[in-house]
Amino acid sequence: MKEFIKGANPYMPLWEHVPDGEPRVFEHNGEKRVYVYGSHDIEREQYCGRNYVVWSAPVDDLTNWKYHGVAYETHYDSILYAPDVVKKGDTYYMYAAERKGSLVVVASSKTPWGPFENPVETKLGFDPGILVDDDGRVYAYWGGCAAPCYIVELEDDMATFKEETLVSNPMGHSTCPWDPKDDGHISLIDAFFEASSPRKVLGKYVYIFSRRYEKPIPELGIYGDCNGFLSYRFSDSPFGPFIEGGDFSFNGGEILHDSEGVGTMTYQWGNNHGSIMEVNGKWYVFYHRQTGVNEYSRQAMLEPIDVALGKDGRLYIGDIRFLAGEPVSSKPVEMTSQGAHINGLDARKWISAGYACHIYGSKTRAYVKPVYEERDDISSPVVDMSSGTTVGFRYLQFGSNTPKSVSIVLGEHKALTVNVRIDSYKGRIVSTTDVAADKKEVSAPLNCGIVGKHAVYFEFISKEDGVIAEFDRFTFD
Fold it and tell me: I need a surface site. Which of 63, 139, 312, 371 has the fewest CB within 10 A?
């Protein structure tokens, strides 16, 4: 029996919904693993949930994730927003955002998966991020668009402010039309929005955050307000001043470009939160994407990322362009289906449609349907597709032996034709088949050989109007 692909993008099981993930590499009992701490979207009709769970993977295999269970339950009968966890000495400290982020407590554990207990109230605020420096000093960062961000050094108890170190609004915060508070600080366009995540990278203090854009960015298909980015600034001091770095992650899916370089998004962008981490000598960005028709069923994603320091001391993060071996510019890395499967997803395993990073051309609003049943073989379908919809996956690995056919599983659908294209949503058609309305599974021959790594797109065409199909999963044989 064929296996289902695991550890793709999203890298946790498709039934799990952990956004805002802060990655941390901890060595515990002689084993190094990367642990992810985030919110838990289990309320389904609003952000987050009332507990945090922990997942981890060995540093040499980021496709093999382990569930450690619940690490923290609310102590205030409230919704928990994004947390952070750091280690100092032999103790792990979780900064839990109770009451939807308006009360931050610090709880502790002797293991990286918790349970985190004995919460102590702090004066930290929304979206706390913590940095334990090389010399053991501890700094806290927090803030949101309706208020400025802050930085402060903490006492050895990991909770109390060193008040004389408090810095207010070191980044400048974005405008917030839905909560236009006059806090005495100037709001900026295209600036800090939320999601503070301080990191030490190549000797620089890096302030990672979610940026809110209000200007058009035609090359990415953005023409209105957008906060689907992770961005960074850097400094030689934990308190700044911070130099603009740029954007390194965007969750709007594959970007299609026309002949003039104007882009079109192929996935529903939404709020973004995460960070970067060096894992076993390689750098990755951990972020999240949206599923469903709102932002209440988000999923954890990751991509390999470049990090480099220029001769002038400038730090580059993202998809870096080098000239004569020297970094000269960077841009957001692409959003993929493969994640840590850097050679591509095994085309001969079952691949859920829920791993799509491209859903395009639908006259209705096609989307990945959230699933919650905790099964290894569960698939998350793409639903509400109209004729002309393409669903794409970057990338699949076919190896050196070409498959002979493709098998497709559909949900409810009308009579339709399915074309399989490679390398582009307008690329070569390698298989085409007509599917009767009462047939849920179909196998079709390939009309050419496919070897190596390719992007793959499924095109759904019907003479019927409106919603024509649900796409569940596929495999090559």
Answer: 312
